[in-house]
Amino acid sequence: MAAGGAAGAAKGAGFGAAGHPGSARQPGVTATLPAPADSGIDHVIVLMMENRSFDHFLGWMPGADGKQAGLTYTDRYRVRRATHHLGDFQGCGHPDPDHSYEGGRIQFNSGKCDGWLRSGESDAFAIGYYDSTDLDFFRQAGPDWTVCDRYFAATMAETYPNRFYQHAGATDRTHNSTVTSTLPTIWDRLSDAGLRGKYYYGDIPFTALWGTKYLDISHPYADFLADCASGNLPEVSFVDPRFSDEGSGTSGDDHPHADIRSGELFLAEVYAAVTKSPAWGRTLFVINYDEWGGFFDHVAPVTAPDADPGNALRGFRVPAVVISPRARRRHVAHETYDHTSVLKAIEWRWNLPPLTPRDTAARNIAEVLDFTSPPNLLAPKYLVPPFVAGAPCAPVGTPSVEEWPALRDKALADGWMLP
Amino acid sequence: MSVTRGAPGIRRPLGLRWMAAAALILLATATLGQMIDPPEAEARSGAAAGGGTGGGTGTGALPGARHVFVINLENKGYDSAWGPASAAPYLAGTLRNQGVLLTQYFGVAHNSLPNYIAQISGQGPNPQTQADCQTYSPFVGAGTTSPGQYVGNGCVYPAAVPTVAGQLTDSGRTWKGYMEDMGSSCRHPSLGAVDDTQKARVGDQYAVRHNPFVYFASITGSPDCARNDVDLNALTADLASTATTPNLSMITPNLCHDGHDAPCVDGQPGGLASADEWLKRWVPAITSSPAFKRDGVLVITFDESDSPQTDSSACCGEGPGPNSPLPGITGLGGGRVGALVLSPFVAAGTTSTTPYNHYSLLASIEDTFALPYLGYAATPGLNRFGLDVYNGGRHR
């Protein structure tokens, strides 16, 4: 896999060079970082959604390197199929696209990024896309704030490995499983420094994968809304959506077959809570997606320095938006980031030692901020209308391995009290 | 999904698509094995999807294989066979790095016999085949149900039940079963007699229940059986030239060398260790043969997982059968076993994550020789080997 990554690196090196038609690339506007204490950032909030690629979800974003209509991919029966606008909000009738460690490498195809229809049971859904009219939150918030169009999933693998990277800068597994982890995390670094970190979960706490170690810093989502309202936010907050009931369309995490309108409502709710908080003036809020979900993307990821070469290949690009009084407005950032770039920002701000070679080498996502202008506290209000969810999707194809119930069971067995 | 903007080829009125599809199916039948140009394949596939039959039906992905070899090993789940700690390092390491590993390949039943029967006929299990036919009884039934399933119970299917062996013979192609330790060709009990090969004996570790050809009266009642269902010893000579190599070779090691027994009755260790030693001898013999090097495909798989208790999961839409509501005794399938495909048409060290089972294997063999699908191989939308497996770039 390292060889494939190297091949991809050669291809992906085109980034930064001229010649992305239709994308207004702005070279070299990354900031010279100030002294951390002078950054004006006292709170970092990370909201990680599920399973969407950049082209599939935000390929329409003005000024970004997105591609949607007009691409074709050959399926396993040598039928060429075209990318197409998706006509519903769930993808009912289609299998959940393959987004496994192995399937991602089939899709990557040594950097050709053309195997979307030759992995797992992925069908035409995997090369479908949404446009701005489908996305009531991103249609408004994306162009208003800073969108990153070279933000990759940290590793070419499914949900748990990527979420481990967000917490720990590494993963100890290539597939979802509920074995208890011993990886050191950013929570340990914060705690060692006497700082506060809180993990807010919708229904199932990812931190339960460390047993009960993080029980005391894990809180239900309602506490996040309350902490925003009071302004009593910790230095670092991770916020997760509700993971259950993806099939019924109500989960709000954007994982197929969740209704993406539910996800948009959730994003708007968190955005409103953050921007109305008394702490807003000194907050950096990052919205990202754990991995690409098996959906097409035209940019080949490259490898990053990693303690385990088997995990060094990043996953495909995912949507990422940076929101802050320090954020550039109506801006697209083109440098390469992944989940560990957010860890890097946290470690920079509070002078914490890095966790692994990965976050050590990562670009600091705080560099997309504008530290030369005064903070701009204005935050537009976004109307995201409620919707009536359709009927739950009937199962299609071989059921995908559903790990959330297993994690819920593990948490309950370990003594967690869940909402 | 009801709206698909901007996707060429799917905007034509439904009626036209159906007419085009019908014409193309006729065309494909008339030009066996011929590559279909992508636009035609798309129209054909699109129409099939519109008709609710699931996946595409194009054959444009086929590389032009003419010789298929299948080696069935016994009773190992995916992790024990293919995982990093596999007791078969030659299989899981050396050979795996030469081919494409199908990580989502499943057995269709427990115990052994219905898996072998599935591979050559598409017939689902019944209680007696699930019990490995301790008595070699005739299949007694009444009628059929879709897709091509004979309703009833028993071991030896009546002459009307078709097999891929018969399909190959009828279309002027050749097949052989190579059964280690069988000795005399087409060896099986008399109808109604107890099967005395259920336990291995020193010098005779042949198991009738791992030789599917003798469970079809259409074969046992024909001179083809003595000609084509032969001892493994015949394989060496048959591999010497393309002309003597059958189009389909189904290969079953004995109860020691297929990993079934451990330890073996003759003192060998058995299990994956003995299977690995057997593969070291026979796989190079196959892969160095003129037929394989020209246009061969070798599939190495396991009939079922370790046991119904460890894994009886299914894939690929397998559900309750007309004769056995639970094909896997405790579940719907034979569990995840994996399969390795070696071929000049395959890129070394690659992976396919597409779900397959033994019915998919039959359908893929039938695709190779442009034969109609038998039994559950005709399951709508069933995955068949495509560019995920034939990923090597070389096509004839």
From TrEMBL, chain B:
Keywords of this entry: Hydrolase, Virulence
GO MF, one annotated term: hydrolase activity, acting on ester bonds
PANTHER family: ACID PHOSPHATASE PHOA (AFU_ORTHOLOGUE AFUA_1G03570), NON-SPECIFIC PHOSPHOLIPASE C4-RELATED
Domain of life: Bacteria
GO biological process, one term: phospholipid catabolic process
A Pfam family per the record: Phosphoesterase
InterPro entries: Alkaline_phosphatase_core_sf, Phosphoesterase
Gene3D superfamilies to which the protein is assigned, alphabetical: Alkaline Phosphatase, subunit A
Name the UniProt record assigns to this protein: Phosphoesterase
Organism: Cryobacterium shii
